Amino acid sequence: MDSLNFRSDFKDDYIFLMTDDTGMFQHSYFGVPNPIYGYTTDDNARALIMAVMLYERYHEKKYLDLIYRYSLFLLNAQNKDGKFKNFMSYDRRWLEKEGSEDCLGRCIWALGFALFSDCTPKGVKAALANVLKKALPNVASLEHIRAKAYSIIGLSFIDDSDSKGLVYDMAQSLCTQYDEHKDGEWKWFEDDVTYCNSVLPRSLFSAYRITGDKEFLRVAEESLEFLENITFKHGYFKPVGCNGWLHKGKKPAEYDQQPVEACGTVLTYLEGYKATGNENYKDKAKKCHAWYEGENSKGLSLIDADTGGCYDGLKDKGINLDMGAESLISYVVSFLKMCSIKV
Question: 137: how many CB neighbours lie within 10 A of its CB?
Fold first, then answer.
């Protein structure tokens, strides 16, 4: 076989159950989309990445339609100053004037990825390029490290000097923060390990590929090794639980384990493999994806065989049977990424 194929019976039913004329719903009630919580730009930005990947792999019109749907959501979410609103009610009312910095970073990531893909229609690219142009003036003033990391990843797809300059400056600031918090065996960017952790080393692998700066590679490898020592203690992937996280000098929370962490770490290891050729990174990516399929601390699959949806995580007493957008997108992106690599 030329590529991995973890589930030959991949189903996309739940993607279309979770998506209406507006965009992708944020949450579900068990296996039913829950309109009470409406939509978020965060989820629709990630869904755009997923839709582009689906269209790249299968070239089916239904996935092209999703690209238009999620792109429209981002266009509607952008303010005049280039930033993005995040939370929208079911009746299409925005619930805030401006979203978080992380939301902006995730939008930059989605925009860069969609613009880079040859499968994104020219008209969509023109629209998204304008959205990105309006958003870019806000990137240099970002303060939160994950927002910077998402932005680095998105801009690493854009081949121009301004983008490379922003990538370099933000990556340098992440390295500075890393060195300020590094202490003995603690090799991390903060005094806590919390959510979407692997995006930080991933962004520095991306920055290294773009700039060739070996300092970025050093910090990426060191911080990923630190994270690996926490999440692979038992031989399988076990992300830090969100019910307590990991505080410096303490033990990591075992639960609740989130699907977004498995996908994020898959993408990080594969970016590390792309940057260095380290075969161990590719092997670890496989193990991270296997978390969805049952290679985890509960020995349970998180995939709903009927719809292709993904459950919202592992709890102390078993599976969280809700199936929200973040979980669904994380699984599908991880699946598609793993199917694309060579064995």
Answer: 11
44, 19 in Cβ contact below 8 A?
no
CB atoms within 10 A of CB 5: 12
pLDDT in tens, 103-121: 999 999 999 999 999 999 9
Helix (H) or strand (E) segment spanning residue 165: helix 161-181
Q: Which two tokens stand for residue 123?
A: 């008209």
Contact yes or no for 201/227 (Cβ under 8 A) = yes
For residues 36 and 314, give the distance between their C-alpha atoms in angstroms, rounded to a whole number.
Answer: 24
Name the DSSP letter for residue 87: E
Alpha carbons 235 and 259: distance in angstroms, whole number: 18
ω into 256 cis (within 30 of 0) = yes
pLDDT beyond 50 at 325: yes
pLDDT at res. 340: 87
What is the spatial distance between Cα 263 and Cα 50, in angstroms, rounded to a whole number?
12
Q: Give the position of tokens 């996280």.
A: 245
Question: How many CA within 13 A on the CB side of residue 284?
Answer: 25
d(CA 39, CA 44): 8
Q: What is the pTM of this model?
A: 0.96
Give every CB contact of residue 59 below 8 A, 6+ residues apart in sequence: 119
- Six-digit token pair at 313? 């995580």
Q: Which residue has the tokens 């300092």?
A: 215
- Which pLDDT value is given to residue 9? 65
Q: Are 311 and 321 in contact (CB under 8 A)?
A: yes
Phi, psi dihedrals of residue 293, rounded to the nearest 5°: -90, 0
